[in-house]
Amino acid sequence: MKPPPDMDRVAPGSDAPPSQRDGPLHDVWPGWTDETIPTLFAHLYLFRLAAHMVLPPAQLRAIADRMEHLTRDLRTMHDQNDEEPSP
After folding, report:
1. 3, 17, 29, 57: which could join 7 in a potential S-S bond, CB 3.0 to 4.6 Å?
2. Where is pLDDT greater, at 28 or 42?
């Protein structure tokens, strides 16, 4: 998969106008594009399907509970980052 043509155009957090700044996903990984995100979710769906075929229900429930906990932690971290004033 080739990177977008303007991937390293403007660094996140730069003083460039908003029209030239990359989206928030580029702060996480600069390779995110409109093509890579659906591909990621397709792979996650296939992984989930495979897990349902080989794991017992108790293990699937434990994984789902852990993922729910991690999602909650990530949301809390994100909310805390939004509350911090930018320099």
Report:
1. 3
2. 42
Residue 48 has what pLDDT? 84
Q: SS3 of 16, please?
A: coil
Per-residue pLDDT at 69 = 92
Task: Note whether 10 and 19 are within 8 A (CB).
Answer: no
Phi, psi at 48, each rounded to 5°: -65, -45
Q: For 79, how many CA atoms within 13 A lie in the half-sphere containing its CB?
A: 6
**pLDDT at position 30 over 80:** no
Describe the chain by its helix, strand, coil percentages, rounded to 5: 55, 0, 45
Token code pair at residue 42: 């397709």
